């Protein structure tokens, strides 16, 4: 049961990463920095926050508090990447740390207590907490990407008006 949960959850994390990458691939550096208004975050800022969060939460995941002393969360929402390449490099680094940590989880430590901001929780709960957090931000990235691309947006799932066609194709499989 534990192994099935872990495999399923890791697939969910991989799916989120792919969704984000499919958005990033559609956008120019300028589009990655677009903000609706001064209070809004750009995709680049959200990516910077995800990077900082991933490094903090997943570095030494099983042995140290997930809110590292070296993390400066507030700075994650200031400035951003100088280029799309820099953003993509940080994106990969964050996800690598995440997946490396997830791959250390097993049935023997799934219910071990870990801490985030000194709050105790099971490894399972910490994994779920981050999955929800990342889902929210990937959703924001998708939404902003759709706004920026407008009619040039390449749908990430079933295009509008194509549900019936999609369902028919699925039946043929």
TrEMBL record:
Pfam families: DUF1572 (PF07609)
Protein's recorded name: DUF1572 domain-containing protein
Organism (species): Priestia taiwanensis
């Amino acid at each position: 049961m534990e192994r099935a949960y872990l495999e399923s959850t890791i697939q969910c994390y991989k799916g989120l990463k792919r969704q984000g990458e499919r958005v990033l691939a559609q956008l120019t550096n300028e589009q990655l920095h677009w903000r609706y208004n001064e209070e809004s975050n750009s995709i680049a800022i959200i990516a910077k926050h995800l990077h900082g969060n991933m490094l903090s939460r997943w570095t030494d995941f099983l042995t140290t508090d997930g809110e590292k002393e070296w993390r400066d969360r507030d700075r994650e929402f200031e400035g951003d990447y100088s280029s799309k390449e820099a953003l993509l490099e940080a994106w990969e680094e964050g996800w690598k740390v995440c997946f490396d940590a997830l791959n250390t989880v097993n049935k023997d430590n799934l219910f071990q207590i870990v801490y985030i901001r000194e709050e105790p929780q099971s490894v399972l709960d910490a994994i779920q907490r981050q999955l929800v957090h990342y889902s929210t931000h990937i959703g924001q990235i998708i939404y902003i990407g759709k706004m920026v691309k407008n009619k040039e947006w390449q749908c990430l799932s079933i295009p509008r008006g194509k549900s019936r066609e999609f369902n028919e194709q699925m039946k043929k499989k």
